[in-house]
């Protein structure tokens, strides 16, 4: 049942996200972040003096998918709270575990804070909390459950091939505590295991 739900959610985003995003009245030739300020009487002068900012404006909502190097992949929703601060809610599933009829799911809530914007993209700091749960079967056919609550942070880079579509990557560190088959413990991962990943977003601009 979990495998079917994960498959339906993921394929729905892949199918309907591009359709809704492209259907909007937007310039798809490329991401032009400049038209955020009121237009002046001299358009050429206005283009020269406008700030270059590579994120979406406040209030913009996006839907997409991403995957972490830890093996979790799924769907994510994003909203820009301000021009430079975004919020991401993600629900992910363990790809390898689904293929073996095991269960591993995760949810996270993250903030994305822009520190450097450029034409067509931005570099940001990302930080947030997450929760993971799994039921895994070992070679002796014994099923064990495990859960973790963690928090982490790192760097987040995003580029916009089109105004309604972006590609992002992140890397950082994560610390978590929880229970693994009855054994309490603390887990620390740095760099490319639990917090590194890639994804894409379709923006409803």
Q: What is the general shape?
A: elongated
Strand order of the largest sheet: 1-2-3-4-5-6-7-9
**What portion of residues is helical?**
10-25%
User: What oligomeric state do the depicted chains represent?
Assistant: single chain
Overall description:
- This protein has helices spanning 2-22, 43-49, 95-99, and strands at residues 61-68, 72-80, 85-94, 103-118, 121-137, 143-162, 165-180, 183-191, 197-204.
- With 205 residues, the protein is α+β, with helices and mostly antiparallel strands.
- It is 16% helix and 55% strand.
- It is elongated.
- Strands 1-2-3-4-5-6-7-9 form an eight-stranded antiparallel β-barrel.
- Mean pLDDT is 76; it is low at 16-23 and 25-52.
- The two termini are 35 Å apart.
- Strand 6 (143-162) and strand 7 form a beta hairpin.
Quick structural gist:
It contains three helices and nine strands. With 205 residues, the chain is an alpha+beta fold. Helices cover 16% and strands 55% of the residues.
Name its key features.
single chain, 205 residues, alpha+beta, eight-stranded antiparallel β-barrel, 3 helices, 9 strands, elongated
Layout of secondary structure:
Blueprint: H1 2-22, H2 43-49, E1 61-68, E2 72-80, E3 85-94, H3 95-99, E4 103-118, E5 121-137, E6 143-162, E7 165-180, E8 183-191, E9 197-204
Antiparallel strand pairs: 1-2, 1-9, 2-3, 3-4, 4-5, 5-6, 6-7, 7-8, 7-9
């Amino acid at each position: 049942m979990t495998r079917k739900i994960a498959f339906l959610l993921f394929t729905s985003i892949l199918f309907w996200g591009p359709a809704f995003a492209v259907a909007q009245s937007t310039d798809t030739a490329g991401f032009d972040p400049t038209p955020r300020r009121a237009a002046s009487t001299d358009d050429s002068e206005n283009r020269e003096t406008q700030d270059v900012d590579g994120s979406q404006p406040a209030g913009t909502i996006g839907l997409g998918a991403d995957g972490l190097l830890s093996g979790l992949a799924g769907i994510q929703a994003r909203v820009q709270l301000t021009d430079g601060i975004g919020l991401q809610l993600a629900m992910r599933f363990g790809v390898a575990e689904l293929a073996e009829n095991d269960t591993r799911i995760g949810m996270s809530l993250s903030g994305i804070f822009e520190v450097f914007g450029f034409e067509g993209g931005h570099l940001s700091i990302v930080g947030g909390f997450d929760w993971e749960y799994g039921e895994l079967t070992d070679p002796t056919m014994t099923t064990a459950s495990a859960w973790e609550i963690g928090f982490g942070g790192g760097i987040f880079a995003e580029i916009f091939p089109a105004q309604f579509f972006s590609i992002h990557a992140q890397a950082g560190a994560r610390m978590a505590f929880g229970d693994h088959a009855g054994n309490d413990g603390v887990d620390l991962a740095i760099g490319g295991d639990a917090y590194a990943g890639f994804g894409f977003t379709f923006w409803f601009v």
